[in-house]
Amino acid sequence: MNDQRHLLGGLLTREPGVVAAGVEVLSEALAEQAVPVERVDWSPPPAGTGQSLAAVLGAPGHADANARAVRRMLTARPHLVDVLPAREVLGLDAGTFLHAGPPLEWADASGPMRGALIGAMLLEGLADTPEAAERELERGAAALEPCHHHGAVGPMAGVVSPSMWMWVVEDAEHGGRSYCSLNEGLGKVLRYGAYGPEVIERLRWMGGFLGPALQAAVRRNGPLDLMSLIAQAVQMGDELHNRNRAATSLLLRELAPALAAAEDVPRERAAEALRFAAGNEHFFLNPGMAAAKACADAARGVPGSSLVVAMARNGTEFGIQVSGTGDRWFTGPAGVPDGLYLGGYGPGDANPDIGDSAITETAGMGGFALAAAPAIVRFVGGEVPDAVAATQRMYEITMAEHPVLQIPLLSFRGTPAGIDVTRVVRTGILPVIDTGIAGREAGTGQVGAGLVEPPANVFADALHALAEIA
Description:
Number of domains: 3
Largest sheet: 5 strands, mixed
Number of helices: 17
Oligomer: single chain
Distance between the termini: 45 Å
Structural class: alpha+beta
């Protein structure tokens, strides 16, 4: 009785608190009367998912499986250990190209993907002209395989051919390896579907000089703790997807002395390599993606876990993979990002979402760390409160807060990490991804940057698959 009186007394003497979940009419009416309202972004689970949710959430060991998977993701320790040609480290032969996203055939490839594949044909000497390259690709002269199937990731089109050099990242905690190509810089580049002479010339310079120079620097420096570097960059205003300014500076600070001291790299060539890297604020994106891939791969293959271990787009489809369902892809149509456009470009010039770079969001970076990078809104649109709200919303669909990636603006709270399929379906909240926007036509290049969400069906499909094996 005394407890009840105490409770009622508190209700009568304190200002009431109102939480509105998915009821806009109620929250708006209260707000008009100056009543403080906490709005929760919520919608009912999609029709037909109730039984699957019950089966997965009620399965013996489900919670333990998720705890194990997310713990492996968060305890991974990716280290930069080498730089090697794709033919050597991935075993690619002249007739095999890797690409971003889930599996794709030439007939279904978008403009930027086709442009990047044409460029790869020219780079490898498999065709003399773009027209000849396109004819060869149409007749199936090259095997196309997802980067993810080889432990690799690639930004935008993500095309990797045998002569390209790759960052090599090793997980010092769990032992896995991951790979990503070198960043080409800005402007007309292969990853956005450009394949003109200047693109091929740059790629040949990267293969003939930049790759070997970086290899010498990395080997002389020794293994570089990328997660420690990423954690510093987050506290310096990066979110590690569309903003890598601090991370690039930190990487060059680590590698520059080793590059300068490398006996087999002439001084003038070392300076050339450093100028190239320093002139591109996204230079760190690629080793950062490989680090995120190492973290996500550490969580793969845990039976019963609903943790997302890959989000990737090929310019046509958006796909996810889940820890408890092996290498199976769940796909849906890729959407067009909503953002800011360069020059005279607009939404009509934009290709649907493309690239493996959403591996950063998968591991608790990128769009999930927007609150750490308020300046990003000048690049992708919106206002600073929008960036903070985006990160706060992601806590609703993730399993943990990253113990290393801490956001100063949120009192050093860890970034939301470990996307849970069941939470996405239950809440209706989709992961937020900040990304570049490629032009629809091959050869156009980048036309803007913005935010995009996955198609909701991929999470419902993954949930049903998990229910079948629960």
